[in-house]
Amino acid sequence: MIAVANQKGGVGKTTTSVNIAAALSMHGQRVLVVDLDPQGNASTALATEHRGDVPDVYQVLVDDLPMADIVKQVPDMPNLYCAPATIDLAGAEIELVSLVAREARLRRALAAYDAIDLDYIVIDCPPSLGLLTVNALVAADEVMIPIQCEYYALEGLGQLLRNVDLIKAHLNPTLNLSTIVLTMYDGRTRLASQVADEVRAHFGETVLNTVIPRSVRLSEAPSYGQSVMTYDPGSSGAMAYMDAAREIAHRATVA
Ligand SMILES: Nc1ncnc2c1ncn2[C@@H]1O[C@H](COP(=O)(O)OP(=O)(O)OP(=O)(O)O)[C@@H](O)[C@H]1O
Ligand SMILES: [Mg+2]
């Protein structure tokens, strides 16, 4: 169970969640993407209805609806499933505050959910460190942090790492910062390679060897309700996420 988190907006959390999940599923792994962002971008990318009154993650977290009641199979992707987020989830951040075990609602819901023999659960977090992200970090075994290869990329990272440590200390002792993935890498700029070097110097083996390049195809795919894996499998972005997924799967087997 992997939480994809970074409170900085627009660093590639959703793109990474969706495409890693799709790549793993195309290798026969059964994968559930939990959309934990009220923006519902992961649901959109996976062509999973998330408007109107479709049952969603909000109802699971706040109203105790079983996870099985909201999970949908992703169209044309036999091993891929999505738990959608509607805009209602925006209210959860506040409504969770007064609930019992507010940090562990997602963990509880996923523990009770064993319907479809999953190999991976990927949780796409919103760009904040609020209770939704805390729920993801409490439920997960691993944290994956996408870092955009830009100048401000490392700002705020300290705060995220402190939160991970706090959750380890108090709520989820086995949580492991397993993976950092460098995103939107533009090989033509020195800045991108400087940021990449700096991240590798600091985080070592945690950083995937595979770097995700900037690729227009990656940003186009969601508007067709597809991952880039089906939208344009030969594109640089698709091949990079395929390699990244392979690294992640390999790490899981040697760990
Ligand atoms: N490697 C890439 N190349 C080109 N565009 C990308 C790449 N990765 C992501 N994008 C685009 O950048 C934007 C932000 O990416 P994404 O939505 O994945 O980030 P996010 O961290 O989930 O954002 P938010 O914090 O709003 O949830 C999107 O428009 C996406 O299509
Ligand atoms: Mg997102």
Task: Report on this structure.
- The protein has 255 residues and is of the alpha/beta class.
- It has one domain (2-253): Rossmann fold.
- The chain contains eleven helices and seven strands.
- Strands 3-4-2-5-1-6-7 form a seven-stranded mixed sheet, with helices on both faces.
- The longest helix is centred in the last third of the chain and has 19 residues, at 236-254.
- Residues 13-14, 37, 41, 124 line the site of magnesium ion.
Please give a quick description of this structure.
This is ParA family protein. The chain is an alpha/beta fold and 255 residues long. It has helices spanning 13-26, 41-45, 57-63, 89-95, 105-111, 131-139, 157-170, 190-203, 216-220, 228-231, 236-254, and strands spanning 2-4, 31-35, 72-73, 80-83, 120-124, 142-148, 176-183.
Key phrases:
Rossmann fold; seven-stranded mixed beta sheet; binds adenosine-5'-triphosphate; binds magnesium ion; 255 residues; single chain; alpha/beta
